[in-house]
Design goal:
296 residues, mainly alpha, 0% strand, globular
Amino acid sequence: MTAVQVLTQSIEDRVGGLAAEMAFFALLSLLPLLIAVGAALGYLELLVGAETIDRSIEQALDGARAVFGQPFTRDSIRPLLVGLLTRQRGGTAITGLVGAVYLSSRVFTATIRALDIAYDLDEHRSLLAQRALAIAFSLGAVVVVPVTLAGLVVGPLLGSGQELAASLGLSDAFAVVWSIGRWPALFLLVVFFFTTLYRFGPNARLGWTESVPGALLGVVLWIVASLGFRVYLAAGGGTTGVGDGAEEAVQQIAQVVGAVVAAILWIYLTSVVVLVGGELNAVLAREGPAPPPTSA
């Protein structure tokens, strides 16, 4: 049975440990990426207006509250986000982006090696070629992740479907199509990114069709993990158990610890599902002719 083979192979290939390596570098890249995006968004107020920016901040904070809770969002995330959006510093954006791309490239370097393990392949590509490929994946992630998150809130800079339709002078039918159509569009976007990762990541000549099953599984598992993670947080997961009677400094430290734990768990789950999707493709590939390795 394919599911049993994928589970067995995932255990043998130490997917849990490899996902931890990916999560480590992903966590390190998170702060510089937020700094880069926040500093860059500071310039958008000149184009879209303060009201749109304020609405964008509130929508972003709504998402943060769902993950990190109200106290930490209010005391830590909100001041940071508002401060970044009100400081129009191009140098900060560029520096943060460079740091984020470098650290996230380490994530994809680990992913590439994990996919090679899944296919039982030796890595013959040069370190320069591996790093260039990892950076390409990082740049793709820098585009895909913000677009996906923006689409989940109907693009905070675009407003709701009704507002977008009105601004373009279109009928209400467009608002309905926009509201419904964005979900399959976002799904296909993430599937395409996963497919590209599985297509070019391993040191093998793989076709697009061969890479799709793992991408579909990875995205579905990611959605399931997202729902499970929300249930976990709603049940009090990620909290430290510090009561309201504790000193303010202790409460702030507890909030930070809880946020870090939640972020680590979320990133780790995402890394696991990415590698499990690769394991599915590898299992299916073994049932057919072995994929030839790429040129050195």
